[in-house]
Amino acid sequence: MKIQKITFTILLGLMMVAAGCSNKGQSQKPQEETKNSKTNISYKIIEAKTLKVDHIHGIGYPGNDNKLYIAAHDGLKMYKDSKWFETTANLHDYMGFQATEKGFLASGHPQKGTDLKNPLGLVQSIDKGKTIDQLAFYGQKDFHFMAASFSGNGIYVINEEQSDKLAPGVNYSKDNGMSWKKSEFKDFTADSLGMIAVHPINGDLMAMSTRSGIYYSEDNGNTMKLITNPVMVTALTFMDNDLLYSSVEDGNILLKTINPKNESQKNWKIPFLDYDNPITYLAVNPKNKKEIAFTTYKNDVYETTDGGKNWKVLLKNGKMEQD
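Predicted structure:
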């Protein structure tokens, strides 16, 4: 099926949620002192005494820090050792957040009151969000859904509109956003696009969740293969060479791993989730595979530090859980 004929429907209305978070303001240029140009507030990471997260646009474990990062409507939130942290400035509405070995990639909209163009296009930070570098489409595009290899060469975006450099559908770059090619999606028969996962080392390997299962590719999405039963898959990420994913089956929220080569699967035990509160984002720490986190539609955040034996609630309905 040609990708142009596929409706740009993202699972469970996640695109509508993300689109509702547009920030029409302007934001800052990267500066050495990193101060908001109008408020003159220095960028610091401080412990959060209270926290309320209304929207989550991605999670991950950046390689230049030891914390779990959450991209929220009002900037980055970070978690480590039973403490939440937030930033004093650069409260950008990051979309498509992707943790990488050097830091993170994102798109989205800048914080109001500063002087970055809106939308951000594709940006990168290698200093924990203190500054951001514009890689591509600055002031032109907002990618709600992106994916990137942790340490390899491979960035993928879902483009909703025709443009000079990007065709509609999935496009990928192997040179950090300098040039782009379209993923042809041969043998892809799903009627919607979903979340993308990229192998942490080999950026040619990618997978997509859809309402009818997981499609897997070894050639940047040019040819796709359905590797699961036709079930709704809401989130996925690579765990080494396996895929960790969440599905909705018979009204139950499940977490599983699958080997794309032989399609063998394993079920994971997770806390009970209501059928209307599916998993939306998954993250595995490439530096410590026992650290895994997921978010839900209602902005719950769970993390395990022992490979899934025990799970801790970090946020409930977007609010901090008190020990």
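Summary: The chain has one helix and 26 strands.
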